[in-house]
Amino acid sequence: MSKTALVTGAAAGIGRACAMRLAREGIAVGVLDLNLEGCEQVAAEIRAEGGKAIALQASIADRGQVAAAVAKLREAFGPVTIVVNNAGISNFIPFEELTDEDWDKMFEINCKGTFIVTQIVLPDMKAAGWGRVVNISSSSAQTGSLEQVHYSASKGAIISMTRSLAQAVGPYGITVNNIPPGAVMGTIMSEANKHRFQMPMEQLLKAIPVRRTGVADDIANACAWLVSEASGYVSGQTIGVNGGRVVS
Description:
The protein is α/β, with parallel strands linked by helices and about 250 residues long. The chain has helices spanning about 15-25, 35-50, 65-75, 100-130, 140-145, 150-170, 200-205, 215-225, and strands at about 5-10, 30-35, 55, 80-85, 130-135, 175-180.
């Protein structure tokens, strides 16, 4: 059975890696992001490798934009039975300085956006009697993060959403799982943000049992397994990809 996936936040970083990895598995991919130029570059890379991809632009918090993008993806490749909810925002703001607007925007994108995207593609999965939802949260939701109370809370909501949605859609042959990445370079763990973390990089590396930070492909590899047939009995789970730093 041919499969079509929607990967959000796919113009760069973890989203790009997931889109590339799924395409290598023979899955047609909708590469979605606000950054259309970045999406077009990723889609072109996928096609250059012999895969199938289409670039899509939408704000995941805008239901109309998401519906239009998904319609384009369906027209190109058929029903969408895989979604990787990777798109999100993050920043560092001391708790006392957080505004209502800061809090609302974080939850609008990270939580409401994930809800909208999943709800829009769910009918395709139910009709097929098969589906895979992979949510990308954050290890910050498990450990907390200095100056990221709003971000950590929004990603904690994604973990709870995963558990509940898995129970709701399991009878339709749909699995829902969550990957909370650890310290992944090229994302929030950029050179510019290293100083914002609770410990120096040298100390962080000592706290990671495998003694290295992650790369986007580490997350993509786990994602590829979670959308495969091999993971059909895995649902509602949090699959930590963090080098052993968070153990549950």
